[in-house]
Amino acid sequence: MLIRNAPADLRVARPWAVAISLLVALLPVAAQPQGIIDVPVASTSARQMTKAAAAFVESLRPEQRAAAVLAFTGANRTNWSNVPVYVHPRPGLRIRDLTNEQRRGVHALLRASLSSQGYQKVAGVMRLDSIHGARELAHLEQFGPAADDRPFVHEEAESFGTGSYTIAVFGNPDGDTDWGWIIQGHHMGASFTVSGEHATFTPLFLGATPLVLEDGVGAGWSALSHEVTRGTELMASLDSAQRAKAVEPDALPNDVMYGVGHKGEPPGRSGLPANDMTARQRRLLRALVEEYVRNADFDVAEAQLEAIETAGWDKLWFTWRGPTDVPDAPLYYRVHGERILIELLQRPNHIHTIVRDPQNDYGEAWLDTTLTEEHTANDRFEAATRAYAESN
Question: What integer best gives the mean pLDDT of the chain?
Fold first, then answer.
């Protein structure tokens, strides 16, 4: 047995001696107290994000910087949505207008802000939007618009794709204590806030269509592969009495109910409370929550989970609408509590999700402020419809 970079006397030792030496070396680690352990400041997401954002800003030409670096104000930071870019022209720079070096800087900033799973989800959502746009344009070319399509359906389809996602930085990451950034486009509003050594990732909207590729060499691939699964696993574990509490008889909403424009409208206590779940079911509930929270880098995710723990895992509520035994059917679920709000809406091969912290979206608790999202997704569609009618 050879251990690289080990002392010479360890490299030549007998296998059983090596095993004992390694076990002894690991004992102090095993004896550490449970819970969040301090990490070097340079490893924290706040420090990583700040360094990566400053490098991205530095790579911009003066005219690009004027478009991409905006004031750290509530109006700028809440100006996002999940609708196509044609419907809502975003502030900031589009990825298509960046150089390859600058695009690499965007991805470096994403990796500094997200876990590996979160990074792959965000990158996957953009990739899927390019696939979706190509399909929509091919369909329109072959069949033309349907009678009930939006009048700007062709312009909308042309605005899909990775190149249409925009990035904006709020404040000066190279000098300000408080700053933030966002990447957004169709099916994505990923907002990050840094306040000193603190960082947060909420609100975070991610969606996908197609949810799963149906054909081609990538058939079966999905960017958001576990969000539906985690909800259906928990639902399947409930007995009839628990389901009677969890399932709401209302029809499915048209979208997630607490998406853009619906901040500050926390749901009442409805559904199945976690303290009515078994230990196994609470474990599934935690797995569901972590599927969303651990999209953030590890220290941000652990801080969010600690906030949920302090508020009480037993004070979470689980709500469901739609069939309970058909995973591919249209369905809706919500998990909500004092420090977490998660929603998922599934349509055929199409999902929308959002995660919020009702007490600290946009880092409000650290900044001692309350922000308001002025426009909903429907507001954006209605405004685009009016603008299209006036221009034609």
Answer: 90
d(CA 390, CA 225): 41
Query: Considering only CA atoms, which of 305, 352, 315 is closest in space to residue 335?
Result: 315
Cα 335 to Cα 274: distance, rounded to the nearest angstrom: 10
Q: Fill in the amino acid letter for 239.
A: D
Q: Is 369 left (phi over 0), alpha (psi -120 to 50) or beta?
A: beta
Phi, psi (5° rounding) for residue 57? Answer: -60, -40
The answer to whether the Cα torsion of 325, 329, 330, 335 is positive or negative is: positive
Taking 80 as the threshold, does the pLDDT of residue 23 lie above it? no
Does residue 296 sit in helix, strand or coil? strand
> Is 213 in a helix, a strand, or coil?
coil
Q: Which three-class secondary structure state does DSSP give residue 166? A: strand
What is the Cβ-side half-sphere exposure of residue 262, based on CA atoms within 13 angstroms? 15
Whether residue 356 contacts residue 336, with contact meaning beta carbons closer than 8 Å, is answered with no
Tokens coding 155:
């312009």
Listed by start position, the domains of the chain span: 42-202, 224-359
Q: What is the CA radius of gyration of the chain?
A: 23
Residue 88, judged by CB atoms within 10 A of its CB (0-12, 13-18, 19+), counts as buried
Percent of the chain with pLDDT over 70: 89
Give the number of other Cβ atoms within 10 Å of residue 269's Cβ. 11
The strand ranges marked E within 114-265 are 166-170, 178-185, 188-195, 198-200, 204-208
Q: What angle do CA 26, 28, 29 make, to 5 degrees?
A: 65
Q: Residues 25-67: pLDDT tens digits?
A: 444 433 444 444 566 665 689 999 999 999 999 999 999 999 9
Q: Of 191, 129, 211, 204, nearest to 162 (Cα)?
A: 129
Write out 18-66 in H/E/C secondary structure: HHHHHHHHHHHHHCCCCCCCCCCHHHCHHHHHHHHHHHHHHCCCHHHHH
Predicted TM-score (pTM) of the model is 0.89
Neighbours of 210 (CB within 10 A): 17
DSSP string, 215-241: SSTTTT--SS-SHHHHHHHHHHH--HH
